[in-house]
Write a structure and sequence with these properties.
Layout: H1 8-14, H2 22-33, E1 39-43, E2 58-65, E3 70-76, H3 83-97, E4 111-117, E5 128-132, H4 149-154, E6 166-171, H5 182-192, H6 204-210, H7 218-275, H8 280-287, H9 291-295
Parallel strand pairs: 3-4, 4-6
Antiparallel strand pairs: 1-2, 2-3, 5-6
Helix pairs in contact: 2-6, 7-8
């Protein structure tokens, strides 16, 4: 099976928007959120278009589920220091774009931001992180602000924070375990592009069948191969630049260290000569320091 399944980010751009393939994405989302989720429709998102300008950097889709919630699913291949800020921006933009002018505040959508990243985002030991808003008492941290009984009748959730956006970060490259849970099976597929024959997670059986490279039409298969080769080349260029930058920085650091060390040595010699009563001109000639350097000792 190795190498025969289409990468998830490419599938997001070309295949998973097809209603017949909703079951694959529904399986992933249901497994991640721990509920039986069904997609109602796809909405316009920042890089919904699968043109050559965005095929390297990222893929993202915005879907609405049958409960009216918005889910942003984004795949990011390249390192971005401000990626957390972009997560926040994407959620804020979706909230503002999908409420009609003049609508009441209760029409604000619940948004989930699901980020599949293939680089070291932040610092931590886990490979899956979940973030949500929690209102805790300032004097009693165990006192969590809840919705009133009337609010719970109208809105989905129990706590006030349940109305606010939630974030998931899947640091795929950090997964190095044997898949023991359905979510681990999905993470393993996202990392390796392979699905174990024993995998039982919702949606993976359909992914194994519908995301086969050899099932693509010839033109699509050729486009897929070109994109994967281009992505591999881009990663190589970025990695080479990173290593060369580190090597150059170390070399410059050593050179600067030698220069600074040499100057410190000359200053020490100048101090000794000055204590011995040598004139400034003689010290300048002996150390190649400036007159000001020696006068400032």
């Amino acid at each position: 099976m190795s190498g025969n399944l289409i990468h998830f980010d490419w599938a997001m751009k070309r295949l998973l928007r097809d209603k017949s393939n909703y079951v694959v994405l529904e399986g992933f989302l249901s497994t991640l959120l721990g509920e039986d989720l069904h997609i109602c429709r796809f909405l316009e998102s920042e890089s919904n278009q699968s043109d050559a300008n965005n095929k390297f950097n990222r893929a993202d889709i915005l879907v609405e589920d049958t409960a009216g919630r918005l889910l942003i699913i984004e795949v990011q291949n390249n390192r971005e220091l401000d990626y957390f800020h972009r997560m926040l921006y994407g959620v804020s933009k979706s909230i503002s774009e999908y409420i009609n002018l003049g609508d009441d505040y209760d029409k604000v959508r619940k948004v989930y931001s699901i980020n599949i990243v293939y680089f070291d985002l932040g610092q931590g030991k886990d490979y899956i992180y979940h973030g949500k808003t929690v209102f805790r008492g300032l004097h009693d941290p165990n006192d969590v602000l809840r919705l009133s009984p009337r609010q719970r009748e109208i809105f989905i959730g129990d706590d006030a924070g349940d109305i606010f956006p939630e974030y998931y970060v899947l640091r795929v490259n950090d997964f190095d375990k044997v898949a023991k849970t359905p979510l681990d099976e999905w993470i393993e597929f996202l990392k390796t592009g392979e699905i174990d024959a024993t995998a039982t997670a919702k949606g993976l059986a359909e992914a194994r069948e519908r995301l086969r490279v050899d099932a693509l039409p010839i033109a699509e298969k050729q486009a897929y191969v070109r994109d994967m080769e281009a992505l591999r080349y881009q990663r190589s260029v970025i990695r080479t630049g990173w290593y060369e930058g580190r090597a150059e920085g170390r070399a410059e650091g050593r050179a600067e260290g030698r220069v600074e060390g040499g100057r410190e040595k000359q200053l020490e010699i100048a101090r000794n000569l000055k204590r011995m009563g040598m004139c400034v001109e003689t010290i300048v000639a002996a150390t190649n320091l400036s007159v000001d350097d020696i006068q400032n000792l």
